[in-house]
Write a structure and sequence with these properties.
heterodimer, A: about 375 residues, alpha/beta, Purple Acid Phosphatase, chain A, domain 2, 2 domains, six-stranded mixed sheet, 9 helices, B: about 775 residues, Rossmann fold, five-stranded parallel sheet, 20 helices
């Protein structure tokens, strides 16, 4: 049996940090990625599509998206099982309870464990729904599959990494006792670590499109092949890329830089070496100690990312290059530096940032220069 | 710390110059354009390099001091420090025009003379060896030309204030604080109700409220759309059902029309058949009328025969005993006699009375005549005449009375009556009988005629009756039997005919109701439509329909149609509501992105605000620290120096709350601005030198004065140079660049010092 396991799609959710046009385009791409998944399911003739929660963002979902879901689900000949998550909970006003989806869509609408049985597939899909934005109990607690000879699948949105999670805790012991042949889980957008931590057959699907720089790398869904003879199940799964864009992060060391041109050439070299293409949304964090007189124009640097889908520059540099000279400066500059030193060396990044910007502003103001824009 | 020697390979207008310096006061004396400032700048170049920055109104140092032909600035400098001697070699090539180098290239080597090894790679020699930044070097060690009220474009007073305030001539922390405060205000007012951050927060709250509202609206729109979809499906279903049922009903109608056509055709056939049957009665004509005629004739015949018998009996009964009839004249005559008798009796009485009267008159007249004879003869004669006439008339009248009596008696006698009163009755009886006789005679004659006529008519009727009867039955002699038989047959025929006619009328009546379908064109249409209907599913279903089913289908179709219309109205209203909601709908996600963007912007501004406020706090704290630590020492040191320079006139330097500098004499305090330019310069130099001494108490760097004493009088200059010379003895090297000879002369006039020298530079050398 072939299963397409996806979730955490977050249709209609906002894309932070992008321009309105770019954000609109990303939302379109997210929809396109969803449509691609459905087309892939048709092309691969999968027997079952599992959506492990957070299909859309309840707060932001639009009519177009609902129409898209209905249209895409209707194009499938196989069953689609949906376990609503914390972002699309099956509350009283939820569209899950309006009965607007095609007949091949099966939605869990209660936080209590329930199941859909597909006799043609000799398969039972267990699952539950978030009824609000959080779920502090484990619906699987003390439960086990009813017929171990059937293909038993758990489709759920939950957190298998913390037994006290507010998002459907799924303790390892509970999952093991439950005895599913495959746990199709959703919640973690970067699924690798959470999947590796599972002690039962299964995977976190991750999101099909990264939404911000916290969701870097290639994103997609999971194609599962599951067979069973008696009580012995043979499971194989692999991740399939569906994302149109990839979020990536890099750091650029700028120790000693005193001029914007130095920063520009260093950034150009990094972009050239990294070889990112138009499918990349790149964040570059500038690090290192730079000359206190240097005020980095990140807007100008952003303009270098014409070959990228998006380039974001973060300036984490510390304007303490030639610190010894400042340290020895008995005048106002040295005093300012010395007073700011505790902040500049603070363990708290926010404190460090405040110290950095205060130093830059103070130095610029003392020099009669225009205050740095950032 | 001091500079031992310099070798200028190429720098500005200078080439291949070697200058050996003493640890004390070194005066570079030369005319304008002799390269004094270039030498001073060369020292800075060796220590810090040349800036490529283009400051306002000036060309960059690199362009100014690199050789204009080769683009090269190069040389070496030997510096002696407390840590040892270091040779600095620096070579810089600045891009120049055609044929020159295209890129900036710089080579810097610092060699520790005691070890011969290269050191301080990648570091700035000035910062390592002097322990100060280039900026600080410029603001403390390097004293440039003092112009009118300005030092490098900065007012003297401000420069001094900067030193007092910031420990650096070029730093105005108050201005810096003001700049920062202005920026802070632009970001957020102290009361939190103004500035970019405030506006952004306001906007953020507005957008968040809008996002929540749009999110709710989105849910409403989705719910409405869901309801609309349901409504549309229901409408479609109703319409479909309505159309389906309507198609059934229509198919049923078509089939019914065909059935009606079939019925009409059957009816027509039946009517035709009846009509043919009725046509067989045509030879009989109007049977009813004939029956009536026969019955009338038959009845008339009997009546005639009865009448004939009665008439014959009447004829036989007429009385022959009646007196003969009187003619009218006779009757008139009889009645005349009666009248004559009456007139005779009446005339007789009248004539008698008249004769009596006449006789009386005669008598009277005779008497009168008698008596009148005496009176009047004539009257008596007239009376006699009259009596005579009366007597004659009386006689005549009497005679007539007698005649009439006789006539009366003869009439009575004629009629055989004696009683004159019975005469009338007898005459009338006679007349009556006479008239009876006349009537009887007339009746007899009439009867005879009538009988004859009736007998002829009877015969005629009988012939006619028989002729009619012969149409319906076989002829038999007996007319009654014939008539009876014919009537029976005719009645049977007319009964059959009536039945057929009734049947025909009934069928014709029915047929008339089919008039609309009997047209051949219409028949063809109906047949074709029915055929088409039967070829459809609706027709097949409708074929099994009863009328009740069809009516129900029609009713249901109507219900579904009206229901669909009602739903459509509601649907349209919902669509309007939805359109209205959609028209003003803004995507919550887009709003959220705007909010995120604003939050990002706000976060940046808040970070900037934190940085600005922190910088302000730090500046204030640094200023306090400086005022408490460095500045009192600078002021004290500067006071000592100035007192020495002024020959004790200004033993103390004071700093007011606003950091303005005052020179304090024994009894007065004078603001710097009110003193001479020379005194101001001296105060400034005192301050700079004091700064140097305070900042570098152990191993002070060389002090470089580039035309710094041009406005100071000879006496005060002498004191300054004496102080510098004395300082040189303590290891404080001073490099003084001047275009005048005065400084050299003063130094040469000073008590011989080992470390003082005058180096003369010639233009173009």
């Amino acid at each position: 049996m072939k299963i397409l396991h996806t979730g955490d799609i977050h249709l209609d959710s906002p894309f932070a940090g992008l321009s309105p046009d770019a954000a609109r385009q990303r939302r379109s791409e997210l929809r396109a990625a969803f449509s691609d998944m459905i087309a892939y399911a048709r092309q691969q003739a999968v027997d079952l599509v599992l959506i492990a929660g957070d299909l859309f963002d309840k707060v932001y979902v639009t009519r177009d998206t609902i129409a898209l879901l209905c249209r895409e689900f209707a194009s499938l000949s196989c069953p689609v099982v949906i376990a609503p998550g914390n972002h699309d909970p099956a509350d009283e006003k939820s569209i899950w309870k309006k009965g607007i989806f095609p007949d091949n869509v099966f939605v869990f609408t209660s936080a209590a464990l329930s199941r859909f049985s597909f006799d043609r597939l000799n398969c039972c899909v267990y699952g539950y729904a978030f009824e609000s934005a959080s779920l502090r109990t484990c619906p699987l607690e003390g439960k086990a599959v009813e017929d171990p000879t059937r293909l038993n699948i758990l489709c759920a949105h939950g957190d298998a990494t913390s037994p006290i999670s507010a998002y459907g805790p799924l303790p390892a012991g509970v999952l093991e006792t439950f005895g599913a042949d495959y746990c199709a889980l959703g919640h973690f957008h970067n699924p690798e670590n959470a999947t590796a931590a599972l002690t039962v057959p299964g995977a976190y699907c991750g999101c099909p499109e990264g939404r911000d720089f916290g969701e870097t790398g290639i994103k997609g869904a999971v194609l599962v092949t599951l067979e069973k003879e008696g009580e012995a199940a043979a499971l194989d799964w692999k991740r399939i890329r569906f994302c149109r864009k990839i979020y990536a992060q890099r750091t650029l060391q700028l120790d000693g830089a005193a001029e914007q041109s130095e920063v520009t050439s260093a950034l150009g070299a990094l972009l050239l070496d990294a070889g990112f293409g138009e499918d990349t949304l790149l964040r570059i964090t500038l690090q290192g100690t730079v000359d206190p007189s240097l005020s980095i124009d990140t807007a100008a640097l952003t303009a270098l990312g014409t070959d990228l889908a998006h380039l974001e520059i973060r300036d984490d540099t510390v304007p303490t290059w030639n610190a010894s000279a400042l340290q020895n400066d008995q005048g106002m500059r040295g005093e300012v530096y010395r007073l700011l030193l505790p902040k500049l060396e603070s363990a708290d990044p926010a404190e460090r940032e405040t110290g950095r910007s205060a130093l830059r502003f103070a130095m610029a103001a003392l020099s009669g220069k225009e205050l740095p824009s950032q | 710390m001091y500079i031992k020697s310099i070798h200028i390979t190429s720098f500005g207008p200078l080439k291949d110059r070697d200058i050996v310096l003493t640890p004390g006061l070194n005066i570079f004396e030369g005319a304008n354009e002799s390269g004094k400032s270039s030498v001073a700048m060369f020292i800075k170049f060796m220590l810090y390099g040349l800036s490529g920055k283009c400051t306002e109104g000036e060309i960059p140092e690199r362009k100014k001091y690199a050789n204009w032909d080769t683009g090269c600035a190069a040389g070496t400098m030997l510096l002696s420090t407390g840590k040892g001697d270091y040779q600095i070699e620096r070579e810089m090539y600045v891009p120049v025009g055609d044929g020159g180098r295209s890129n900036l290239q710089e080579r810097l080597v610092v060699i520790n003379q005691s070890t011969g090894e290269r050191c301080f790679r990648g570091e700035v020699p000035g910062e390592v060896l002097l322990g100060m930044t280039e900026q600080m070097f410029c603001n403390s060690v390097f004293v440039r030309q003092l112009g009118d009220n300005t030092i490098d474009g900065t007012g003297m007073t401000e420069a001094i204030e900067n030193i007092l305030l910031s420990g650096e001539e070029g730093l105005n922390s108050r201005k810096a604080a003001a700049v920062l405060d202005k920026e802070r205000k632009a970001l957020l007012h102290k009361n939190g109700a103004g500035g970019q951050i405030y506006l952004l927060r306001q906007e953020l709250r507005r957008l968040e409220g809008m996002r929540d509202a749009e999110s709710r609206k989105s849910a409403e729109i989705i719910a409405l759309e869901s309801a609309l979809a349901d409504s549309a499906a229901l409408i479609e279903d109703r319409k479909k059902k309505g159309q389906q049922l309507s198609s059934y009903a229509q198919a049923y109608d078509k089939l019914q029309r065909k059935a009606r056509l079939d019925a009409a055709l059957a009816c027509k056939a039946e009517a035709d058949q009846l009509e043919a049957q009725l046509d067989t009665f045509t030879p009989y004509g109007d049977i009813g009328e004939k029956i009536q005629t026969m019955e009338r004739l038959s009845d008339g015949r009997q009546s005639w025969e009865n009448q004939l018998r009665a008439m014959r009996r009447s004829l036989a009964a007429i009385d022959d005993a009646l007196p003969p009839e009187m003619t009218p004249d006779a009757e008139e005559a009889a009645r005349g006699q009666q009248k004559a008798a009456a007139a005779a009796i009446k005339g007789r009485k009248s004539a008698f009375a008249v004769s009596l009267i006449l006789f009386i008159l005669t008598a009277v007249s005779g008497c009168a005549a008698f008596f009148l004879r005496s009176v009047d003869t004539y009257l008596s004669i007239g009376a006699v005449v009259f009596a005579g006439i009366a007597a004659i008339c009386g006689i005549v009248a009497f005679a007539r009375s007698l005649s009439r009596l006789e006539k009366y008696h003869s009439i009575l006698q004629e009629w055989g009556v004696s009683d004159p009163d019975a005469l009338g009755d007898v005459i009338e009886e006679r007349i009556h009988l006479s008239r009876q006789r006349t009537a009887a005679d007339s009746e007899y004659r009439v009867l005879e005629t009538e009988i004859a006529e009736k007998e002829a008519q009877l015969e005629k009727d009988i012939q006619k009756l028989r002729a009619l009867a012969a149409q319906f039955t076989e002829e038999v002699p007996d007319t009654d039997i014939l008539t009876e038989s014919a009537l029976a047959a005719a009645k049977n025929l007319i009964g059959e005919q009536t039945r057929l006619r009734q049947a025909y009328h009934t069928v014709a009546g029915r047929l008339s109701t089919f008039a609309d379908v009997l047209d051949p064109v219409v028949q063809a249409e109906i047949t074709e439509e029915a055929g088409q209907a039967l070829s459809t599913e609706a027709g097949q279903i409708a074929a099994g329909y009863t009328r009740g089913d069809a009516e129900k289908a029609r009713r249901d179709a109507g219900f579904n149609r009206s229901s669909a219309e009602g739903l459509q109205i509601r649907h349209t209203e919902m669509e309007k509501s939805l359109s209205a909601m959609r028209a003003v709908f803004v995507s919550p996600a887009e709003l959220a992105e705007k909010i995120d963007g604003l939050k990002g912007e706000l976060s940046l501004l808040e970070k900037r605000y934190n940085g600005i406020t922190t910088a302000m706090e730090i500046l204030e704290a640094a200023g306090d620290n400086l005022r408490q630590g460095l500045l009192p020492r600078i002021v004290s040191e500067a006071g000592l120096l100035l007192g020495r320079f002024s020959g004790g006139k200004y033993p103390t330097v004071g700093v007011a709350g606003d950091f303005s500098m005052h020179l304090i004499t024994q009894d007065k305090t004078r603001e710097l601005d009110y003193l001479s330019k020379g005194t101001q310069d001296a105060a400034y130099i005192s301050l700079r030198y004091a700064l140097l001494n305070v900042l570098f108490p152990g191993d002070p760097p060389p002090a470089i004065f580039d035309e710094s004493f041009s406005r100071i009088d000879a006496d005060r200059l002498s004191k300054i140079l004496t102080m510098l010379s004395a300082a040189g003895d303590k290891g404080n090297q001073s490099l003084l660049f001047t275009c005048r000879k005065l400084e050299g002369e003063i130094v040469q006039a000073l008590p011989a010092g080992d470390d003082d020298q005058v180096i003369r530079l010639a233009a173009g050398e």
